[in-house]
Amino acid sequence: MSECKVVSVIAEKGGVGKTTVALTLAVAAVQAGNKVAVFDLDPQATATQWTDRREAEFPWVVAIPSTRLSVSLENAKAQGVNFVVIDTPPHAGSASVEAVRYSDLTVIPVEPHLYTIETLPKLNDIIRLGGDRPALFLISKAATQGKEGLDAATYITKQGFNVCPTILHLRAAHRHAGNVGMTAQEYEPKGKASEESNLVYMYTLSLLTI
Ligand SMILES: Nc1ncnc2c1ncn2[C@@H]1O[C@H](COP(=O)(O)OP(=O)(O)OP(=O)(O)O)[C@@H](O)[C@H]1O
Ligand SMILES: [Mg+2]
């Protein structure tokens, strides 16, 4: 990957797994040999605080306001960064629109729950406002038992949206990893959370290289 790819992660609801997905994609990209930066647009600074608990140098995580996206992207590229992930605050608003505008792909984690699925039209509006850029819905935090994840994926696909074929199930490894400044791929490389994370990254990559 020579040119710089930019992936943003947005959602309307809080706590659906935006930061987990953003860091998971970033670490997968690092493990694949890329020079990776995460731009943290969330005033909660969850991704930035994660690096305080982390030993590895990459991904770089930088807290910036959305107004600094353009210049920060140029600076990152000048330093050889070739993969950028943008994490955003909940209640997708102007920061999310800006993130979408600069992204080759926007990933939207969705919990398989009606309350979250009801936010789809607003998220669609955000994508349009950001210039109708490519978007991928990702079922996140689905129970490992039963088929709520699959049902949600089928429902969202029927609405005409692109849904990731891999579901990121509710797995404790994500939480445990975050607590120690890691992602699931680092915390439990052979675990299911790691496997699903890598599949999501591979699918994301396939959309970026089309
Ligand atoms: N697939 C998952 N399995 C288990 N726990 C998860 C998963 N995804 C996220 N979590 C946990 O859920 C909590 C919220 O996740 P996260 O911070 O990634 O969500 P968020 O959408 O970024 O939240 P916010 O809206 O506050 O920014 C964290 O404790 C995280 O470890
Ligand atoms: Mg977050």
UniProtKB/TrEMBL annotation:
- What domain of life is recorded for the organism? Bacteria
Pfam families (UniProt xref)? CbiA (PF01656)
Q: List each copy of the CobQ/CobB/MinD/ParA nucleotide binding domain by range.
A: 8-93
Q: State what protein this is by name.
A: CobQ/CobB/MinD/ParA nucleotide binding domain-containing protein
What is the originating organism of this protein? Acidithiobacillus thiooxidans (Thiobacillus thiooxidans)
Q: What is the lineage of its organism?
A: Bacteria, Pseudomonadati, Pseudomonadota, Acidithiobacillia, Acidithiobacillales
